[in-house]
Protein: Glycosyltransferase involved in cell wall biosynthesis
Amino acid sequence: MPKILFDHQKFTTQRYGGISRYFANIVQQIAQSTDFSSEVGLLYSQNHYLSPSGNELDRFMSPLLRHHRLSDLLYKANQAYSHRLVKKDDFDLFHPTYYDTYFLEDLKKPMVTTIHDMTYEKLPEYFWAQDPLTHNKRLHIERADAIIAISETTKSDLMRYHRVDEDKIRVIYHGIDLKQPLEFAPVEGLPDSYLLYVGDRSGYKNFYLFIDAFKAISQKYPKLEVILTGGGRLGIADQELLHRLGLTQKVKHVQVTDEQLNTLYSRAEIFVYPSLHEGFGLPILEAFKANCPVLLSDTPCFREIAQSAVAYFQPHSLDDFIEQIDQLLAQPDRRTQLVQRGNKRLQDFPIEKSIKETLALYVSLMK
Structure:
């Protein structure tokens, strides 16, 4: 039985997160298969998707891992274990979960790498010049026997920035479980009316333009608030921005479980995703499934994934951002129409299709 080895990287660094969920879905599908087996190079992880219920060890480790030194030690321990499994060579194909290069000299078997986006290459001005990610990603691309691009946009970007044989690239969209009903959990203190922002707030995510737009629109809709989730707690610069704009009481950050996130989507007036560039945009599918109207920046990837099921604004235009929010808030019938279109578009992304295509790619490399 062919064996797939996944390494530790995103399972170590993410408790929740799109990339670790992507890999966990593959691992779980293989576990149900009689055609494959798999192993994950982990000594210990608190990743929700691998161990959703948690245990006594998790409750003991959680406060300890808030200390950077201990979390660094865990990363090194998991990496050493993954490296040991690579050198042991008791597998048929390797699929690393991110772009660390610790294994390259010792890997003898075929390798698949997934390119989630080319944001660092496309928008380098938003990133630290000493960040090794683009270098490491290039080494993955050069070593890989096959490359999964999660959208046609990502494939196009990949071929633009790297000399890579197109035949090595397979576009496999993310998927979502269409059969499993959503589970909800209460979130304390939610306002009656709010815009929802999910994820990181770093430069290319366009968060500050969103806050400027909210400042303007809140003059017309004084009861409207903003709920932020993911991306870590508000930093000092974020807090100072909200203080300067007089929005401290109207913008709230909450850390939530997947079930609570479903509640946030379902009760939001609009899910706003203003990013300047993405490789796919999994929160779009999450919002569709939770019947939440969506407003996106008008970028090629978002057009590819969402098509006509969302509203768009020009990604650098504050005036257009304000206008599009205003129009959606003023037109409940349009929001309902977008929800209906979102439900229809969602049917194009079943998780089964994504996993089937991924496993077929594995098979093609092991013949």
Observations:
- The chain has a mean pLDDT of 94.
- The first strand starts at residue 3 and ends at 6.
